[in-house]
Amino acid sequence: MLGPPRLRGFAAQVLRGQAQVTFLPSALAGAVFCLALTAAGWEYGLYALAGTAVGTATARLLGVDRERVASGLEGFNACLTALCCAVLLGARHPSTALLALAGCVVVTVVTAAVVHLLGTWRLPSLTLPFCLVAGAVTIAAPGFRRVWHHGDGLAALPGPASGTTAVRPAELARGFFADFAQIFLMPQWYVGALLLLGLLLADRRAAGVACLGSAAGIATAWALGTPAARIADGTSGYNSVLVALALCGVFLPVRTATLAYALLGAGTATAVGPAVSALFAPSGGHTFTWPFVLTTLVFLAAAKSFPRLAGSPGQA
């Protein structure tokens, strides 16, 4: 039987798993993240916490390396997978809860496969397992009547951007915070503000890099003529936050050169976003964190050829 110390240890692993969405092995940050998601709706906080717990427990049962489990690296993809189901399929349907449970188990298996395959090139798995499982779920869901509750499917031909490109100061402020919220598939700016608070409490340097990444994403989106509505709701900039964090301080050392490299990557991810959206639109898929994954893997692979950037990569 699990005694109180083991329960406390498992709870810490779960909270670290939530924080690892932004590369932080911090139970404190995970607790603040949980509160932030609950502010968007109690069901989202519950799905995120339960999903992370299921992913972590599955990894423990399958005998995954204890260090990975303890640091939360086996929980964050499950956290995002559960949230994806709640947001896109409807959080209050029993079928959604069951599908989220199964998805969190499956994404743990997919994580092991991706870690093994990318480990050959000494590259991290990032949120690739989440993208693969969530993409499969959302594309397939309209084909199952007990799972899909929204009428018509999401498949559509991509079209050109529309709407004004003039961004007002209030929209810039909302977009800055919404960039953090959209990492967890939430659109509310105040959720992003709470998530940023969690980053600040856990690691001020990481919070600073994340803020610069958001600013780089917003600047790139504005320069390229992204509609103001997409900047304000955070859908054009959330990948840039993750890329900046990954390339400056997580997988590459903190240096002036790597910060510049990270901001270049942040801008690149913003530009890649619409391409990924157009690619998945005909099948009804979503962008999720594909721009972050693709940009980060390319930039990390390239960094091995740049002596001024190379450092000891982390694990994720």
Write the layout of secondary structure elements.
Blueprint: H1 4-19, H2 27-40, H3 42-61, H4 66-70, H5 76-89, H6 94-119, H7 128-140, H8 169-181, H9 189-202, H10 204-223, H11 228-232, H12 238-250, H13 256-280, H14 290-303
Helix pairs in contact: 1-2, 1-3, 2-3, 2-9, 3-5, 3-6, 5-6, 5-7, 6-7, 8-9, 8-10, 8-12, 9-10, 10-12, 10-13, 12-13, 12-14, 13-14
Count the DSSP helices: 14
CA distance, first residue to last residue: 30 Å
Shape: globular
Q: What would you report as the Rg, rounded to the nearest angstrom? A: 18 Å
Largest sheet: number of strands, sense, barrel closure: none
Low-confidence stretches: none
Number of strands: 0
Q: Could you give the order of the helices and strands? A: HHHHHHHHHHHHHH
Overall residue-averaged pLDDT value: 92
Q: What class would the helix/strand composition place it in?
A: mainly alpha
What amount of the residues lies in strands? under 5%
Approximate helicity band:
55-70%
